TrEMBL record:
Its EC number is 3.2.1.8. This is Beta-xylanase. It is an enzyme of class 3 (hydrolase). Belongs to the glycosyl hydrolase 10 (cellulase F) family. The keyword Cytoplasm does not apply. It catalyses: Endohydrolysis of (1->4)-beta-D-xylosidic linkages in xylans. GO terms for biological process: xylan catabolic process. The active site is at residue 238. Residues 1-342 form the GH10 domain. The gene is xynA.
Length: 342
């Protein structure tokens, strides 16, 4: 049994792929990805800082390799991401003197970037996360250089430019904590605003960086139903379930690999996950997939944020140097035993 066959009557099942994986440093990872999943998202390779690091420099090496690999292996590819406040170099927002760009100049720069990146893979990429993480937790628009320099309509322009650059691609809005009722209201307003202006938006991606006790899954379910009611596709785009304690305040971001006291508190399972915690993880995944399967008329894709526990960003976030177990595939690249119950 593979994940893609197990869920074939429900939704597409995907994974994020890293630069190292696609450029051949980890061939066994790529074999597992090809066997288990039917849709890929580049983990970092198409983000602005990677693909367009300097004003006149594009680096398409990893992105090109992934597009080609996906094509050769019948994997649907979702580009990630065209417009985001994070992993975007400072120069994007400045002129040659280091002064902030005008609205018109930044719009032009956004359009050129989208043309270069989305245009390059036109007809070879199934869909794009056009805008990522533009909302605050209370549903208002996040203050970023995009919103400050251009204004709230930067989102409309991003979708219009993406449509022009890749007219056949599906266009998505992607964000985290979209289960929260206030953020849900903001996302629905964003979708409806685009729809009312005749700007194409095809789907919403709910990142799902969950833990054993958060979020309350009924909120996730309510959000799936509410987003689907706007008429667009709903996708779970970045699923992982951390089993580790979530640090608060200044502990967030800390590298704990050399700090024994922090390790005892925040990295409790460096040598393997106790079976009772693994059972809890399985129960949690089962609860998530029960909801997703119940709404498989609305949910078109479920993408995990990584292939296996050996290489997941959660080993380094929200603290660095931990041993987490958030995915369905273990460090030996085997499906976890609870997967057959999902
Ligand atoms: C993460 C990657 O997994 C890390 O390798 C990188 O250091 C930071 O970004 N939301 C997103 C993803 O939309 O792009 C992020 O990916 C995780 C959170």
């Amino acid at each position: 049994l593979t994940l893609k066959t197990q869920f074939k009557d429900h939704f597409k099942i995907g994974t994020a792929i890293s630069r190292d994986q696609v450029l051949g440093a980890l061939p066994e990872d790529l074999n597992v990805a090809k066997a288990q999943f039917n849709t890929f998202t580049p983990e970092n390779s198409m983000k602005w800082e990677r693909i367009h690091p300097e004003p006149q420099t594009y680096d398409f090496e990893a992105a090109d390799a992934l597009v080609q690999y996906a094509q050769e292996n019948n994997q649907e590819l979702v580009g990630h991401t065209l417009v985001w406040h994070s992993q975007t170099p400072d120069w994007v927002f400045e002129d040659e003197q280091g002064e902030p760009l005008t609205r018109d100049a930044l719009l032009k720069r956004m359009q050129n970037h989208i043309n270069a990146v989305a245009g390059r893979y036109k007809n070879r990429i199934f869909a794009w996360d056009v805008v990522n993480e533009a909302l605050n937790e209370d549903g208002t628009l996040r203050e970023s250089k995009w919103s400050t320099i251009i204004g709230d309509d930067f989102i409309e322009y991003a979708f219009k430019y993406a449509k022009q650059a890749a007219p056949n691609a599906k266009l998505y809005y992607n964000d985290y904590n979209l289960y929260k009722p206030e953020k849900r209201a903001g996302a629905i307003a964003l979708i409806k605003n685009l729809q009312s202006k005749g700007i194409q938006i095809d789907g919403i991606g709910m990142q799902a960086h969950y833990s054993l006790d958060n979020p309350e899954l009924s909120l996730m379910e309510d959000s799936i139903v509410a987003y689907a009611a706007t008429g667009i596709d709903v996708m779970i785009t970045e699923l992982d379930i951390s089993v580790l304690p979530f640090p608060e305040g200044e502990e967030q971001g800390a590298d704990i690999s050399l700090d024994i006291a922090l390790q005892e508190r925040f990295n409790p399972y460096p040598n393997g996950l106790p079976s009772e915690i693994n059972t809890q993880l399985g129960e949690r995944y089962k609860a998530v997939f029960n909801i997703l399967k119940k709404h498989d008329d609305k949910v078109s894709r479920v993408t995990f944020w990584g292939i296996s526990d050996a290489r997941t960003w959660r080993n380094d976030w929200p603290m660095q140097g931990r041993t987490d177990y958030p995915l369905l595939i273990d460090r030996e690249l085997k499906l976890k035993s609870f997967v057959s119950d999902l």
